[in-house]
Amino acid sequence: MTDFVNRSEELDRLHSLFDSENADLAVVYGRRRLGKTRLVKKALEGRENAVFYQARQKTRELQLEQFVEAAADTVPGIEDIRPDWERLFRYLADQNAIVVLDEFPYLIEQDESLPSVLQALFDHEFDESGTTFVLVGSSISMMEEATLLGDSPLYGRTSLTHDIRELSFDAATEFLPDDATADEAVRAWSVFGGVPYYLEELDADRSLGENIQQTVLTRHGSLRNEPEHVLRMELTEPTRYFSILEAIAGGATGRNEIAGVTGIDYNQLSTYLDRLSRLRLIERHVPVTEKPERSKRSQYRLRDPLFRFWFRFLYGSSDRYDQFGDEAYERLVEPELADFVAPAFEQLCCEALWTLYDETPIVDIGQWWYQDHEIDVVGLTDENTLVVGECKYQESPLDYSALASLETHVEELRWQPSGGGKRTVEYALFSRSGFTDSIREAAADRDDVRLYTIDDIVAALGE
């Protein structure tokens, strides 16, 4: 298992809470596999007054019994308390214990009053206690409904809320071999993203293709059914949601396109898209020059790279991969991998722009599109400079036509400096496979053109 990676800010905030002399409530939630449990356990190291209980889908009586067993290692006297949540929590608070309830939604399933019990205790009985309760959960919807939304009994009572997200690209590369090339890092990110559990499944002695074959494509691979499992945990009627995710992964990113591909009525589609957005499975993008609340040119994208991969290659076609066996990656995936990686490469180029143009007062970075015009990277500044970029994730070197195309598209981008005056444009070209002599000569002759290799991009993301 890889050493604990990143999350230093989250650890510091948990440590501060544990050291507090007040009664505190913390909520740690997020999708499965992001390392929530490991984060909390890391924060508990060296704490002798900690009770950690990982709930299971069992009856209330069994949950209470197993909670007492877990707590007895730290607070032996708890075995003499009648097994009732309110009495047990009150007793632990009297001992100033740190109490972690992992997979809290499983407890609520068996006892819906539990949030109200905690509310009453924090409101009326924990005033003299230095206890800390940490509620951890993977069901985003249930955690929000039980602890964070306005009608939740615990709303407004949390001292700390950690919405755990994927690791950054730079942190994710720590799971890769030290000798991994920049291109290997980008390809690994495009498939496994920043989810610690997925990255830990990678075998350093295998190539990326071999890892994809063994973990995702093989019938009994550890990640073969991971997206389906995650979705079924959150969605009671997943069929339409699966169809939407498959459509988006296949390139239908606008609402009209999604409605057309799935057959779902356009007016009903918003309900499904909003639900998937709340669950962090998709995200809505608009051109960087527009305000999200007003734009009518939005596109939807799958947030998690493994989900993108699974819906692009495996969903509905798993039998085909089984037929090809050990050759499935080489025959079915590798020929299309560059096309699959390209959108992730573009996103990384956008992120790298902050560092690559650190001398330029960039205030927003994103992408832009209008009708047949599209620009992969756009950096808006609070002065008169507009930075635009073209990304090519391909086997051949980037040539002059990429710059010519970029210059054509930027003419249609309606952006003017906020202070008035004429805008100036800077051109950035990003390439996986280097550059032809023609574009190198153009960059050497012009002050407004910069060339960046994939090594430059990865290096910038590590700064």
Describe this structure in words.
This protein has 463 residues and is of the alpha/beta class. The protein folds into three domains: 8-163, Rossmann fold, CATH 3.40.50; 171-340, Orthogonal Bundle (Arc Repressor Mutant, subunit A), CATH 1.10.10.10; 343-461, Trna Endonuclease, Chain: A, domain 1. Helices cover 47% and strands 16% of the residues. The protein has 21 helices and twelve strands. The chain has helices spanning 8-19, 36-44, 60-72, 85-94, 104-110, 114-124, 140-148, 169-172, 182-192, 196-200, 208-217, 226-234, 239-249, 255-262, 266-278, 305-314, 318-324, 328-356, 400-410, 437-445, 454-461, and strands at residues 24-29, 50-54, 98-102, 132-137, 160-163, 282-285, 299-302, 362-370, 373-381, 385-392, 424-431, 449-453. Strands 2-3-4-1-5 form a five-stranded parallel sheet, with helices on both faces. It has a five-stranded mixed sheet with strand order 8-9-10-11-12, sandwiched between helices. Helix 9 (182-192) crosses helix 16, helix 9 packs across helix 18 and helix 17 (318-324) packs across helix 18 (328-356). The protein is globular and about 80 Å long. The model has no long low-confidence stretch (mean pLDDT 93).
